[in-house]
Structure formats: structure tokens, C-alpha cells
Give the backbone structure.
Amino acid sequence: MQQTDAPGLVPQAKRILEEHRQLQERLEKIRSALSAPRESERAAVWLSDLAACLRELLPFLRAHFDQEEEGGLFERIQEVWPHAARACTRLQGEHGALLARLESLGAECEKAPLAEEELLSLAVRVRSLSADLASHEGRENELLCGSLDDAVAAQD
């Protein structure tokens, strides 16, 4: 890698890491909404709160994934860490599936009222998506931090 490539990775990585922090805040709001009681008389409020969290997350996540893909993040990581190419490809490939799941769950929330069994199933699937998003971002953080360490070392 040329020394001039590393400085481009550092500011981009800082932005991405900040977005990952913001994503964690949004996921925490979803977990909080999921933990609220779902008694039959409050189910509509619970579902509305959950739908609002998912609606808020969708445009943020789309923009975040676009920033990672179109901003050249994965290409920069691979310049610094060529052995990470497979992991970068896998992470990029997960973006579409994660967005599709989020869109589907959001649409399902909009179909109120739902029976108790449907609410339980929805909660399980939203928890699963939340965990998968957190895992995905954690793996991206590992790649970012590792490649940053190598980029900084290459400049010394």
C-alpha cells in the first residue's frame, strides 16, 4: 500500500465507527421497545412503538451501507489487508439481506392488529435481526481496526 492511501482510510473509518455507535443506539431503542409489555390491551401501542423504531432505522441503515460500499471502504481495507478480501466480500453481501429483513419486519408491523402468536413471532424475528446487525457491525469494526493498525504501521 502506498503511504498516501492510509490517510484516506483513517477519516472514513472514523465516520463509519461513529455510524456503528449510532446504530447501536438505534438497536438499543429496538431492544427497549421489544422489552415493553405486550398485553392484549397494549399490543397496538407496543406494535406502533416497534414500527417507529424500525422505520427510523431503515433510512439510517441504507445510508450507512451505501457509505460503506460506495465510499470505497472495503476496497481501502483490502489495500491495507489483502487477506481480508473474503471477509469484505461476505460483509458486503450481507447488506442486502439485512435490509430486506428490516423492510419485511417493518411492513409486518404496519399490518396491525396482529394476533398474540404473530406478535411473539415478530418479536423473535426482530430480536434475531437486531443480534445479526450487531454481529455484522462488530465484524466490520474488527476489520476496520485491524486495517487501521496496519495502515498506521505502514506510515511509520
About this structure: Residues 116-155 form the longest helix (40 residues). The chain is about 85% helix and 0% strand. The domain at 5-155 is CATH 1.20.120 (Four Helix Bundle (Hemerythrin (Met), subunit A)).
